[in-house]
Amino acid sequence: MTYENVKKEPLIRVAKRPELSSKKAMLIRFSSVLVALMIGGILILALGYNPVSVYAGIVEGSLMTPTALKATAKIAVPLLGAALAIAPAFKMKFWNCGAEGQITIGAIASTYFALYQVDNLPTPIFFAVTFVVSAIFGGLWGLIPAFFKARWGTNETLFTLMLNYIAIGFVKYLRIGPWMDKGQMFPKIPMFSKSARLPDVLGVHIGWIIVLVLVIFIYVYMTRTKHGYEIAVVGESISTARYSGMNVSKIIMRTMFLSGAIAGIVGWMLVLGTNYTLSDTTANGYGFTAIVVAWLAKLNPFVMVLISVFLAVLQKGSNTIQTNFGIPASASEVLTGLILLCMLGSEFFINYRFVFRKKTVGGDD
Amino acid sequence: MDTLLNFIVAAVLAATPLLFGALGEIITEKSGNLNLGVEGMMFMGGVAGLAGTYYYEKAVGEPNAVVSMIIGVVCAFLCAMFGAFIYSFLTITLRANQNVTGLALTTFGTGFGNFFGEIMGNAAGGYVSVGTVIKAAFDEGIPVLKDIPVIGKLLFDYNFMVYLALGLTIILAYFLSKTKTGLNLRAVGESPATADAAGINVTLYKYLATCIGGGISGLGGLYIVMNSANGTGGVWVHNSISGYGWLAVAIVIFATWSPVKALICSLVIGSLSVIPYYYQIPFIHSAIYEIFPYIATVAVLIIMIFRKKKSNLPPASLGLAYFREER
Prior knowledge:
Number of strands of chain A: 4
Number of helices of chain B: 14
Number of helices of chain A: 14
Low-confidence stretches of chain B: none
Low-confidence stretches of chain A: none
Number of strands of chain B: 0
Structural class of chain B: mainly alpha
CATH architecture of chain B: Orthogonal Bundle
Oligomer: heterodimer
Distance between the termini of chain A: 14 Å
């Protein structure tokens, strides 16, 4: 190597890292969350508040009293459910941004039964029927974009997003149209009768047990079954999947049905367990935040549990700081966005390393 | 006749924010960056433009219409550009996944807009609102010319941002097909490796296109916040920009990455969103009207399947990070 060549090598260059131990990778991700919280802290400081007491307020307002803890759990449960719904689709690199709509459609299906059929069915059968119907309708709503993607390769991100607005628009129609509560001045859908409400277990509706079962189910499904394997292959390379004889269209549609069905179940527990009625904000952004959860967890269901609890703490705690400090509750969205952006950036330091120009090349020394 | 005239005017007004969003995203995507954060950048632009004009008004007391227009546009552009810069840094320099980074930017930008909108509202004791002069600056048409019967209303009675969007459409169409820089930009989006070999600074082009594109998208947010026919009229309303960014992304696809076609598509979607206020459609409940634009978007996504021509295809490297050492 001549002296000139050495001169031309840049001072710092970027090279692929061989492989980082998972412990170190987790450490990098964890520190990126800290960085995000620090940026958030600087922002809070700039607005004239004490970041330490604001963060303490978030923790206190979300975890420190039994009531707060229950409220936090009521956020974490549907969030985790929606993230589990998204996971198989994302593994397949099918960007399902439509969990919000799939949740809403599931909720609509359950609401029909809760309003009009609850007196005709024994309670256990009512819950079983609504559970199944919500899952089917959510699944079908997820199947629509999957069908067009599998057949003709339409853009699924946009398709699923548009279906969100359509589902939510349909709820608005039901609210001022056929399902309106006649006795009210303000158009809204009536509250469900007592017998159409999910029972509580340890103070939180029974949905949390179902979601924890789903955690195990999705873990096993994604890592231990033929379906899970097929999803992974399609996600890595559609051509490889085709060459090895897999029916790619069928896999895409099947996976999206599952994804939508789980989201539909989340809709079921939101109307029957949390809100006891249907409104256009029933899905409450869970479908979108779930994308964050699923991505941050690297689609690992067990990590999703931690992250959805963490984000639920932020969300519930932000309501508290709104009352205590007058900081808008949208702070939780800003913080969530910051954390996600920092974590996305941190992936770089997991996959790549910096190589500095060596002083002693070619025996100059 | 009057109804038709009013309908056309309303459709143009409704189309403008979508056109800003789509034009910005076209430049961005031409560089090979699929930035799904349009909605987030619109929120950032909207809140910054409102903040700029609001504090300008507070500082001088008697605001000047032209100065407030400039301040609004510049603030919105710079703030949305900052959002696009975050996206660029993550996807170009740090090679993060473009899809997820865009979604993250939407989450962040939505929160950013609502957060600062409400902070300003709290400081103002309730909600933040600009005065009549600034409202008029973002609402009123061209003086004198707008008073010509029919033609005046049809052509000259729009706020300045409508003409700004029109001008941008023409400039962009010219830039992308007739200038060397525009062709270089397209080369970067089609095949960054080839462009790199030809001596084009790929990283610089991607950064500039994404940041400028983001700034332009952000003007759509400004429009929604400041205009009173299609937005809130200089008041911050929680989540007021919700949905527009995604429609803009969809328009880019229908428009097959062409600025002029984006203008037409925006008009179609815009007129669909205002049609119920001017024409009664039998058998359809008024609440269903709201979802017309979204249903139309889905329909067009499906129609697009059947018109796959070479000139309609997206930039070949769209969505992929370029890493010189991985060629």
